[in-house]
Amino acid sequence: GLLLLAAALGGAAAARCPAPCVCDNLRAHVLCLNGSLVAIPDTIPELTKKLDLWGNSFSVIPAGAFLATPYLTHLDLQHCKVERLEEGAFRGLGRLVYLNLASNSIALLYQESLDGLSSLQQLILEGNRIEEIQPGAFGHLGSLTVLDLRANALVYLPDMVFQGLQVLRWLRLSHNTLHVLGNEAFAALPALRRLSLDHNELQALPGEALARLDGATRLDLGHNPITYVAEEALAMASLRHLFLDHASLQDVAPDAFARSPQLRMLDLRENQLQGLPPLAGAGGLARVSLHGNPLLCSCLLRPFHNWLARARVQAEGACAAPPALRGRPLDSLKPPEMRCSRLRTPPSPSTPSEQPRAASSRRCPRGCVCSPDFHHGSCENRDLQEIPRDFPEDTRLLDLRRNTFRTVPPDAFPGLKELVSLHLQSCGIRALQPGALRGLESLVYLYLTDNRLSTLAAAAFEGAPQLAYLDLDRNAFTRVPAGAFQLLPNLISLHLQHNSIGELAEGDLAGARGLRWLYLNRNAIRHIAPAALAPAKMLEKLQLERNQLVEVPTAALRGLSALSDLKLSRNPIKRMGDGVFLPVASSLQHLYLDNMGLEQISPRAFAGLGPKIRSLYLESNKMSNIPNMSNFTGLEILNLQDVPFHCDCQLLPLHRWINKLNLRVGATCESPAEARGLKVKLSTTFQTCPGWGRGEEANPEKTTAASKPSKKKRSGKSPTRGFNKSRA
C-alpha cells in the first residue's frame, strides 16, 4: 500500500513540474534557473525540499508565496531582481533552514518580512541595497546561526536591532557604510562568536556597542578609518582574534586591550603606526602583526621591543626608518641598534571626549507609541493631520507613515537632535517648507515615498547636513528639483523612481558631490544633458530602467570614473553604435541592456569593456548576432535568453565562446529552420562551417555532456555560480 502511495505521489509530482523547471522527485529538488519567471510557479510539487529559483525576475515576493510547498528546507532566490518582501512572504515555511536572497534590490526590512521562519539557520542577504533594518525584523528567527548582510547600504544600526537572534553565531556586516552604532545595537546576541564589521566607515572603535558581546571570539574591524584606539577601548571578555588591518591607526593606548584578557592575536597591518607602547594590559597576547606600517626603529621603540621579549609575543613587521635599519624584521633587532635620533614621534591624538547623552524627560505625544528601549517613536496610520511634537529628545527612529499631513512646516521636529531616521511615506505631502528639517543635525535617512511633492527648494533641507539617504519615489515630480541638494554634501543615495521626470538637465544635481546611487527607474526621461551628471563624480550606480531613452547617453557618462552599475533595461534603444560605453569602460561591472527591442549592436559597441565586466543582461531583444566578447573573461552572469539568434557560420565564434564560458546563458537559435529551438551551445548547424573542429567543439560528446546540468555543479562553489566569492 505504501509503495503504491509513493508511486502515486511521484507520478503526480512529475506531472506538476512547471514548464521551465527541472524536477528531481527522487531527491525532492526543483531547479528553475536563469528563467523568465515573473511569479513563483504554483505547480511546484508539494513534497519539494530544495527549490532553486536563481536568476528569475520576481520584483515582489507576495504574501503566502510558498504555501503550496510546506516541506521546503532550502530556498534559493539569488539574482531574482526582488525589490520587496511583503508581510508574510515566507509564511508556512516552518521547516526552512536555508534562505538565500543575495544579489537582489531589497531596500527595507520590516518587522513582518521574515515571519514564519522558525527553523531558519542561515539567512543570506548579501548584495542588496538594504539601507535600514527596523527593530524586530529578526524577532521570529530564533534558530538562526548565520546572518549575512554584507555589501548593503547600512549607515546606522539602532539599539536592539538584532533582538530575537538567541543562537546567532556569525553576523556579517562587511562592505556597508556603517558609521553610527547604537550602544545597544548588539545587545541580545548571547551566542555570537564572530562579528565582521570590516570595510565600513567607522571612525572610532565602537567600544560601548561591542562590550555587549562577551562571548565573541573573533572581531573583524579592518578597512575602517579608525585613527586611535583609546584606553580600555575594547571590553570583550572572550575575544581571541582582533583584526584592525588597513585602517588609519596612528596610535594605540597602552591599556587599550586591558579589558579583553583572552586576546591572543592582534592584526594591525597596513596602518600609519610609527611605533607602539608596551601593551601591558594584553597579558595573553601571543602574536601582533605590524606589516606595512612606517615603523620608526629608534630608541622610542625600545620599550615596546623589550616588552615583546618579556611577554614572549611574536611580532611581524619591519622597520621603515632610520635608513640604516630599513627593511630589518622587528624580531631581528637588538636594543643597542635602536638609537635615539632627532626624529620625534607625533603626539598621540587625544581621546575623543564622550558627549553626555541628553536625558529625556519628555513624554510621548497623545496617540503615539514611544519605546525607550529602541529610542523609537511611532504614530503610524493614526489619521493625524498635523505633525505631533513632544517626542523624547533621544528618539532616533520616528515613524509617521500613512497620515494626512499635506505639508511639513518650518521647525516641525523641535529638540530631536539625535533623530537618525524619519519615515513620512504615504502622508499626502505636497510641500516641504523651508526650514522644515531645521535642527535634525543627526538625520541620515529621510523617507518621503508615495507623497504628492512636485517641487523642492534647497532651504527645505537646511539644518540636516548629515542626510545621506533620500527617498522621493512615487511623487509628482516632472523634473529633478534643480539645486535642491545644495545643502546636502553627504547625500549618498537618491531615489526618484516612479515619477514623471522627462529629462535630466544641467544643474539638476548641483551640490550632490558625494552621490553614489541614483535611481531614476520608471520615469519618462527622453534626454540627459551632457553635463547633467557632472556634479556626481563619485556615482557608482545609475538606474534608468523603463524610461524613454532612444540612445545610450554616452556624453552624460563622461567623468563618471567610479560607475560600476548601469541599468538601461526597457528603454526603446534600437541600435547601439561604436564605443557607447567608453567613458565608463574602466569601472563598469554590471550592465543591464535587456527588454529593449534592441535590433542591432555595432561590432565595436562594447569597445573598452573587458575583464572588469561581471554581469551582462541582454535577454529579450531582437538582434540576431552580438559583438565579439572574448575578452569578457570576468563574466559571472550572462543572460542571452529570448534573443533570435541566426545560427549560421557567422555565429561560430559566439558558439565557441559560450562553450568555454561554463555559464548558463540561455541562448537559443531562431533560425535556420533546422536549428530553431536548439541551444546555441549545442546546435549542430556549425559543423558545416570552415574551421569547425579547431575549437573545443571538435568533440561533440564532450560539448553535450558539459552543457547538461551536472549534479556536482549544484554545490554553492559551482563555477556556474562564480559570483558567490567569499568576502569576510
Automatic annotation (TrEMBL):
PANTHER family the record matches: ANTIGEN BSP, PUTATIVE-RELATED, CHAOPTIN-RELATED
Subcellular location(s) per record: Secreted, Extracellular space, Extracellular matrix
Function: Potential negative modulator of chondrocyte differentiation. Inhibits collagen fibrillogenesis in vitro. May influence chondrocyte's differentiation by acting on its cellular collagenous microenvironment.
Every LRRNT domain range: 16-50, 363-397
Gene: Chadl
Keywords, in A-Z order: Disulfide bond, Extracellular matrix, Glycoprotein, Leucine-rich repeat, Repeat, Secreted, Signal
Pfam family, one: LRR_8
Binding partners and assembly: Associates with collagen and binds to collagen fibrils.
Gene source species: Oxyruncus cristatus (sharpbill)
Chief site of localization: secreted
Chain spans, region Disordered: 324-364, 690-728
Stretches assigned to the LRRCT domain: 293-341, 644-690
Biased composition, class Basic and acidic residues, residue ranges: 328-340
Protein name: Chondroadherin-like protein
GO cellular component: a single term: plasma membrane
Protein family per UniProt: Belongs to the small leucine-rich proteoglycan (SLRP) family. SLRP class IV subfamily.
